[in-house]
Amino acid sequence: MRFHTRKWVKPEDLNPNSTLFGGRLLAWIDEELALYSIIQLQNPKIVTKHMSEINFRSSARQGDIVEIGIDVVKFGNSSITLTCQVRNMMTREIIISIETITMVSLGEDGKPKAHGKTQIEYVKDRLTD
Questions:
Q1: Which end of the chain, N or C, is less surrounded by CB atoms within 10 Å?
Q2: HotDog ACOT-type domain location, by residue (predicted)?
Q3: What is the pLDDT along the chain (129 residues), one digit of tens a residue?
Q4: Cβ atoms of 31 and 38 closer than 8 Å
Q5: pTM (2 decimals)?
Q6: Residue 5, exposed/middle/buried by CB under 10 A (0-12, 13-18, 19+)?
Q7: CB of 38 within 8 A of CB of 46?
Q8: Distance CA 28, CA 11 (A)
C-alpha cells in the first residue's frame, strides 16, 4: 500500500462526539482516489462508480494526523479498481479499509471512455530529459 496523503484533523472535521466525522473522511478519500486516477489514466474526467463495504474500525481526534493509502487492484477498459486504507499516525490504528473502489474514465460526452492503460505508471517515468 502506498500512502500518498496526510490530513491533519482540525476542529471543523469533528462530529458531535469530538471525533473525525465519517463524511469528512469519505470526502478526503474520494478526492484522493480521483486525483490518483486522473494521474494514472491521464484524463481529468473521472468519476467514482462503486465503493465496496465501508467499515469504520477506529477513529481520530482533533490534532491527529491520518494517512490515506491506495493500491491498484486492476485496470479495466474504461476503469481502474483501487483499494484504500486510512490509518491514524498517532495511534497506529487502521481507521477504515475499503477493499474495492471503481473509478471510471469519461469522454467528452460523459460516457465511459477506454483509457488504454494496463499498469501503474509513475510520473518520473513519464518525464523526459
A1: C
A2: 1-109
A3: 899 899 999 999 999 999 999 999 999 999 999 999 999 999 999 999 999 999 899 999 999 999 999 999 999 999 999 999 999 999 999 999 999 999 999 999 999 999 999 998 876 666 655
A4: no
A5: 0.90
A6: middle
A7: yes
A8: 15
